[in-house]
Amino acid sequence: MAARMSRRGLLGLGAAGAAAVGAGVVAANTLFDEPPVAHAASTADPFPFYGEHQAGIVTPSQDRLHFVSFDVTTDKRAELAELLQEWTAAAARLTQGEQAGPFGAVGGAPEAAPDDTGEALGLPASGLTLTVGFGGSLFDDRFGLAGKRPPALADLPKFPGEQLIPEISGGDLCVQACAHDPQVAVHAIRNLARIGFGKVSVRWSQLGFGRTSSTSRAQATPRNLMGFKDGTANLKLEDTDLLREQLWAAREDGAAWMAGGSYLVTRKIRMTVETWDRTSLAEQEQIFGRNKGEGAPLHGKKEFDTLDFDAVGPDGKPAIAADAHVRLAHPSFHGNAHLLRRGYNFVDGSDGLGRLDAGLFFIAYQRDPRKQFVPVQLSLAKDDPLNEYIKHVSSGLFACPPGVRDAGDYWGRTLFE
Ligand SMILES: C=CC1=C(C)c2cc3[nH]c(cc4nc(cc5[nH]c(cc1n2)c(C)c5CCC(=O)O)C(CCC(=O)O)=C4C)c(C)c3C=C
Ligand SMILES: [Fe+2]
């Protein structure tokens, strides 16, 4: 009989249970019997894996990120589809706090490599979500998918001032792991990479700490490494009509297989925090158009006061400058285009020149980057005074397919069938 236990359950077996595990091969991973919860009640709880949309998009943003981009190394379509099935099975378990494979880190045959790496033993689900995406390069001539490339997955244009490093940009596949515990996020990515051995190789990956956006009105707005509240005017999971209109791809968008999915743009944006830290408070606030304490518009008092670009300050000049970040990025100047931002702070050590290698790993989901991210970023790249302090060094664009409906379904089935 298969044992039903979580990662924590395995450690709680006691001597008798541990002896049983040691005596033979024990299936240590099955899904919970309870129906899934819509919102995790505590930071330890799981989010549901199955659903119409992938988790990790409107899911209330967790505090930690491990993002990975893969190159596919097999040229066999069937092997790629098989890998996505194996990844889906592992992801269904990992997100519920189970081990990656049915035998786990210590339940398999002693002469075989374990089907879980073990560093998350004893740790709860920690709100782990795993979200998969397909890069434009997957739709070249290797897998017979060229005819299925969605129009919205058109390559991003070159933006003024960007200094992209090809080795940390792009990729055939991506997986975004978000969790409240960094060890849980890293464990998940490591196990997916292990399962993919011989079929994919890691192209680049990025760790993030400190979410820089709220994706639910129940969450407080966090701060980015420039010290400002970030995510105030974000698309949020409660904005049901806007999500349907601006986040989820629909059948009529030109790629029926993407219906219920969304398009992901990533940008690794380095900040010269040392220069920023020597900039006056007034100038910092002018650059964003919001104050640093409350995150309120410069003409207002409270964070959620409506932005008014006609308001004037005591000097008779616009309270929010014509080139303020929030004005340049505002939907009213881009055909009402919204983004669902869910980025993270990063510090990748130091650069050897006495500066922190720090910044924002920008993540945004949307229905069509050609109408949403691209016009907003063109405007920011051209006129945003923030550009004096930031540099875009990595870029990614991925089509994230719809959610996995049930245990018989898999990530990307609609693309491969
Ligand atoms: C192309 C999209 C965007 C990039 C790239 C971007 C970079 C970036 N942003 C901040 C800090 C803040 N951004 C804020 C608002 C905001 N930013 C974007 C888009 C991009 N930002 C949008 C669409 C908005 C909302 C505009 C609106 O409707 O009001 C804010 C204000 C608080 C908030 O509303 O989130 C901050 C602060 C940094 C530091 C950065 C690059 C490093
Ligand atoms: Fe921004």
UniProtKB/TrEMBL annotation:
Secretion signal span: none
EC number(s) reported in the record: 1.11.1.-
SUPFAM superfamilies: Dimeric alpha+beta barrel
Domain Dyp-type peroxidase N-terminal residues, every copy: 54-209
Top-rank taxon: Bacteria
Keywords from the named record: Heme, Iron, Lyase, Metal-binding, Oxidoreductase, Peroxidase, Signal
Domain Dyp-type peroxidase C-terminal stretches: 221-404
Pfam families: Dyp_perox_C, Dyp_perox_N
Role noted for this protein: Involved in the recovery of exogenous heme iron. Extracts iron from heme while preserving the protoporphyrin ring intact.
Protein name, as recorded: Deferrochelatase
UniProt source species: Nonomuraea purpurea
Gene behind the chain: efeB
